Amino acid sequence: MLSGEPRHKTNVFASWISVRCHRVPGTSVTIRVVPVIILLLVWIPGATAFGQTDEIQVYDGGLADKGKLNLTVHNNFTPIGQKTQPFPGSLVADRSFNGVPEWAYRVTDWFEAGLYMPLYSFGKNRGALIDGAKIRLLFAAPGADDRTFFYGANFEFSYNSKHWNSKRLSSEIRPIVGWHLRPVDLIFNPIVDTDYDGFGNLDFAPATRVAYNLRHRWALAIEEYADYGHFRKFQPRSEQSHQLFFVADHDTKFISVEAGIGVGLTSGSDRLALKLILSRNLN
Predict the structure, then answer these.
(1) 9: pLDDT confidence band, cut at 50, 70 and 90?
(2) 13-21 and 33-42 helices cross at what angle (nearest 10)?
(3) How many Cα atoms sit within 13 Å of 166 on the Cβ side?
């Protein structure tokens, strides 16, 4: 998530494990909720088809300013996308627009709560639609923006409309690991999606960002978003989704902006996608 007083979320399991095992500096709380959440996300036995995504972003573990309510508005447009439905009754990606306002509040130095509501879209085959809502729990090393090495873990719990996802309930597990090498940032999110239908059906959809920070609060980045399919058997390379985004970020006193253009690298990807993320603190 971005912010008016800049809040970056341009947010390896080793880092994720450290979140669950180590006492957070400056607190008396050991974060042991992480492995419990993960088990709850994936243990329920139950194939599933995913629709589109409402958020095209790499997380770096940055949290909202303490005591501030932050609003981030995600906007995505696909001028040239997949022309077939991923599952019966779903939205077609080609020439579709989707977005969502994301409301975030930092609860502690290491925990932020978020709400995405409402998710909405407009598609050539379905018109204007409400896609659902989701809540977010972000755990991160305190002061991630100022650390050389940073880590965290994000969990999202979604309630989906039938055209958005073939299952009503779904979740995302997003470990966060990266380095601020000044002026270069290297960030990796090995994301796992689940529809609560067992470990074999976990979907691997990693996101990566390499950014160069310029003067005057500008940054240029290359981001890659992939979806390999289920862990039990990855999709053939040509059917996987791989998109490369060219991104520019700019923070001002009043608003933060992230804009990007993405190109598909495989036949299973949308050929051209645009994203615009606007963010600021509301108090």
Answers:
(1) very low
(2) 120
(3) 13
- Residue pair 282/69 in contact by the 8 Å Cβ criterion: yes
Residue 66 phi, psi (nearest 5): -60, 135
Hey, what amino acid is at 97? F
Q: What is the pLDDT of residues 142-199, one digit of tens each?
A: 999 999 999 999 999 999 999 999 999 999 999 999 999 999 999 999 999 999 999 8
Sign of the alpha-carbon torsion through 51, 53, 59, 65: negative
Read off the tokens for 27: 């607190």
CATH superfamily of 13-281: monomeric porin ompg (2.40.160.40)
- Domain map (residue ranges) of the chain: 13-281
pTM: 0.82
Give one word for 251, left, alpha or beta, with left for phi > 0 and alpha for psi -120 to 50: beta
| Residue among 107, 96, 32, 100 at smallest CA distance from 69 | 107
